[in-house]
Amino acid sequence: MGFKENFIEFQNLETGNYLLRQINPENDLEAFYEIYSDAEVWNYYGGGGSGIFDKERIKLILENQIREFEKARVYTWTISDKKSKRALGRIHLSNFEYNNKIANIGYFINRNS
Predict the structure, then answer these.
(1) In angstroms, rounded to a whole number, what is the distance separating the alpha carbons of residues 8 and 43?
(2) Is residue 71 in some structural domain?
């Protein structure tokens, strides 16, 4: 099976302490607000910025990440703590080169986690 077939159904990944799962815009909004509104995070992602402080905009971003999965463009997981169930960040694969089996990887982590 090729990688593109993995976009048919979302796949969770698990370690001893963490669960990588699909984003839930309603349940994960507060956790992602902490991350997206942190200017320090933006210094390392996309060349700087002051953060995003509008929760509705953040919710739209999270919903868009689900649509990007459905279009087989970006595979984004929420990184969550298995015990507390709290979202700690996200990790994503994008810019796929299916013939070469290459993708870019990016992540956001709450630095207070």
Answers:
(1) 34
(2) yes
Residue 25 structural domain: 18-109
Residue 21, classed as helix, strand or coil, is strand
Using alpha carbons, select from 18, 3, 16 the residue that is nearest to residue 86: 18
Q: Looking at the predicted structure, is the pLDDT value of residue 93 above 80? A: yes
> What's the total number of domains in the chain?
1
pLDDT over threshold 50, residue 68: yes
Between the two ends of the chain, the Cα-to-Cα distance in Å is 36
Q: Who has greater pLDDT, 48 or 38?
A: 38
Instruction: Tell me how long the chain is.
Output: 113
φ, ψ (nearest 5 deg) of residue 101: 55, 50
Residue 101 maps to a domain: yes
Question: Is 93 within the bounds of a domain?
Answer: yes
What's the CATH code of the domain at 88?
Answer: 3.40.630.30
